[in-house]
Amino acid sequence: MPTSLPRRAPLRKPSADHVAAATPGEIRLIGGRWKRSKLPVADHPGLRPTPDRVRETLFNWLGQDLAGWRVLDAFAGTGALGFEAASRGAGEVLLLEHDQKLALHLQSACRRLDATMVRVVRAEALGWMARREVSDLDLVLLDPPFGANVFDAAVRAALPLLTPEGWLYVEADRAFDEDTCAAWGCRLHRHGRAGMVHFHLLQRGVVRAPDYTGA
User: Fold this and answer.
1) Fewer C-beta neighbours within 10 Å, C or N terminus of the chain?
2) Nearest to 87 by CA among 54, 117, 60
3) Do residues 87 and 115 touch, judged by C-beta distance below 8 A?
4) Sequence-separated (6 or more) residues with CB below 8 Å from residue 199
5) What residue spans of 114-210 are helical by DSSP H?
6) Distance (Å, rounded) from C-alpha 113 to C-alpha 164?
7) Rg (CA), the chain
8) Is 0.70 topped by the overall pTM?
9) What is the pLDDT of residues 53-69, one digit of tens each?
10) In terms of DSSP bridges, do strands 118-122 and 92-97 run parallel, antiparallel, or are they unpaired?
């Protein structure tokens, strides 16, 4: 399914600085090239990093090797989802973040990890996706602020950016059923829940019976 892009050079082992224990103001990447590497979490109202358990489940669903994938993390925040994709070999990762302070944190994390495949763009996600500045993505990651209630608009803006059977991850404060997903033009591949967070893996353009998996 992923588009064919050149594989990256062999993965480098993270430095000792990257694998030190995380503090409350940090999260750790959990797999791939930068396993146990730390990302700072800015002091920002409403910032809600995707929990380790949820990220681990998502990338188990997708498979651990994302070599050559083209990925968009549309509401990047801490960048945890996008950096996890890059850590697993994604060839291109685009992080969209509207807030200037958070965008600067993401740029700093790119430099610190030497994440040359990751690009940070300061932009409002819905408007940027609606302009369709990219296409043929293998994976779009959507974790918008829950209070904004933009799930429907975000999914509809993201789907045209995907390859015909590309993947879409949606994190929300509610569960979306197969009928809702079919109305969007995709199928519900997996659904899980961690506390009050529901997370969904959808596939564009394929409608068949969903596979529910709790988490």
Assistant:
1) N
2) 117
3) no
4) 50, 54, 57, 58, 169, 170, 171, 172, 191, 192, 193, 215
5) 125-130, 151-158, 178-184
6) 32
7) 16
8) yes
9) 999 999 999 988 999 99
10) parallel
